[in-house]
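Justification of resources, computational component.

The compute hours requested in this renewal are based largely on the per-chain cost of generating structure records like the one below. Each record pairs the submitted sequence with a full structure-token output. That output is archived, and it is also reused by downstream analysis tasks.
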Amino acid sequence: MRPARRGLAAALFAAGLGLLWPAPAATPGQASAGVAPPAPASVPASAAVAVPASAPAGAPLAVVTVVASAPAALSCAVAPGQPVPDQCIADADPLSFEKTAVTTLPAAVENLPYTYRFRATGGEPPYVFRAADNGLPEGLALDAAGNVQGATARRGRHTFLVELRDRWGQGVRQRFALNVVGPRAPSPARPASTPAADPPIQTVPIAATQTPLRGRTLIDTWLLTEAVLGKIAPPAAPPAPEGEADGEGAGASEPPAPPAPPAPPAPDPDGLDELSEAGASQLATLLQPLVNVEYPTRALFTAALDARVCTYAAELTAKVALDTGKAAPGAAQWRERCLTAWQGPPPKTPPQLAETPVKWQDLPATLLPPRVRAWLVEQAMTSHDAAKAVAPGWSGTGCNCFVSESTGKVYGMVPNWSDPKTGPKTDFGLYDRLVGYAQPFDEDGNVTPLAPDAAQIDFLRAIHRYGSKLDVTLYRKDWQFLLRLPETQRRRVAEEAARQALRLIDTPLRRLDTRWEDRVPGLAGESHVGDGITLFLDQPTLPGDARYAAFDDFRNRLVHALIAEMRQRHRHYTLNLMVQAADLVPALRHGDEPATATAPKPSNPPTPAARGRAPPPPAPPADPPSATWTFDGLLDYLVRAEDPPFQDGRIAVGAGGYRSHTNVTVRYLVALPEPTTLSKKTLREAVESTPALAGTNRAILMRRILPLVSVGSSQAQQMSDDMAYFNDNFGGVALWPQPVADATFTHLVETTLRGTILAGETREGALCNLVCDWRWALRAAFWLLLGIVAVSLAALLLSCRVRALGRPYQLYVVVAGIVPLVIGGLLLRCDPDLASANFSNQLLFAVLAVVIVALLVPLLKPKVQRP
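The structure output for this chain reads:
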């Protein structure tokens, strides 16, 4: 019993001393002397045993430490290639192949690279592998590290023998098998963009069951009304009558009831409790110029709201600084501050309710608290059903058609919900093109159909009659559905939307309503519903968002599909890409826009209770995202659509300027935020500083940009300055109309456009106005006189009796032929239907030449004397 305990104690003591450490390698001197190297300090000297080998003197020796059953390590000096004494070989960890239970290697494919690595266990590394026979198929080889590499063309099952040895020469052999198979047919792989399946829904919030779903054809705009301002500063209540004030009546002698205890104040849901009475009145007066100005996007309305408040804050600060003899902040400081003035947590005490002075940096948020600002944005949002379109008001008196093309283009936006009674009257003499806004498309690519009534058809006919053109807007702003679509489905939706959009604008007007004018010969070519497409992808996802890759892929496919559909047809089209300036130039983006743009949008409108509450102020973004649209990307779309010739990487421009080489012309409508005094210059600088644009590429792209502004958002002088700047630096302007006609602004727009962008247009004279007013009577007279001339000429050529009348009848035929020619020339020049058609001067000259020759031939024909 005691010897056993002593043995166990000795074993534990040896383990604690670290006797299992490997011995260091022997030095050449120690090896030649046949002496083992010293053992570690924890190993007693008696545990190191030197075993002389029979190798010749001077041969290098190797030392191995093996674990024996005894609590000691044996260090043996052994010459390479010589057998190891049995006492130096440990039986507890024999040398073997790793995972030898599986002797069949993974299959190799014919003529494809193959790699497999053998691994060893036990023994003492380094290990050496060797093919002991020629069983490996031709092309495959086994190296000393155990790697089987190569490629073979020999199919079938091959067996081969592998030999493994460790550093002491221990060896083991084992046979393995390898199958070489032919290449397999590729299986359909799952697309990389296929999203993972969403978990099944289990419950629905009770609030969603009580809220109607948002219509698929709804379009939102933002409009500040007098009713909203009335909520900020309600009018004073009328004074009570004197009889009631004096307490006369039956109950005057009764003692007054004790007043009820005041209820605890509740927070105002709209944030107006943060305004003092004077502050509310001042805010209403400050925002009065924004009343009756409609903005197509939330970002444009928010920018106009902030610009108005920041401009007043800067003027107020400058006045106070002047009165106190201090320096006021500069324009750059205000510009930087206003980008983030409404970010961050609001103060505990509203500044207007405190009597402490306000820092100039906090003045914008003091005049317009963040909660009030968010409430104003929500209250200003108005939803319109695009499926219920009405015809806008228009005026067709006189010949106010757009006759000649000027250097700049003027686009007029025509919302589908414009009121023909209260809205502005469309003056066709001001606009090159009108843009109908808008026709949404759904998740399957189905475009909202256009079902015009009689008034809308009249408007569509008037557009072409007065020389303008109409572009239909293809619209969508919800992009959540793209996450559920694979790549092939996104392509199908884009192609379907493009196909239906082109089918809509190519619908002939006579198919909608056939009139007798359509059967009158000599009119212009067949008129269609539209002449182009304006694509507006509102609220796009921003780079860095998980949904941006799907949106970017869908956008490119949709634009390419529209271009392909247009180029396959024979008409001339215009493709307008409508982009918000903040999505093109990140420097124009407000601080709260990224969070708004990238956050998932609810599919349902807020409940009435939630709509009355102001949403919390937006949190500051982490990093400003990059541009959603790029200038070089816009140029790529132009090149794809117009196929221009290039020279040295730049578009070649001829002596007459650059024009599209296909039936498609591309332009860009850039929605410009307020203040335009800064945003227009920032947009131009962004184009100039884009490295991908050079030479004529930059110039052409600049002239294709049309800034989009809302009528009434700026004063008269600023509007005149903006139009002059747009005409000098860009390709014109696009105007969003006021929802309610304002005679002052209507006259201002007309005089400003005619003094800047349309300054080079030739105005119509009194004669053309007369012809335009009486064009239908002149057309009838033209065809009547032309028929008389034809009959008279046929009688002159075919009847001898008529020819016998002599020269008086011939003069009559000449005069009768000149009259319809004059009337026809006036109609070709002044009739909007004919002037907008594809009649050329060469055609007119050819017709005149044929008529004159036909009249002169009988006169010049030599007469034959009667026998």
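Residues 385-589+624-652+659-763 form a domain with the TIM Barrel fold (CATH 3.20.20.80). The chain has 28 helices and 24 strands.
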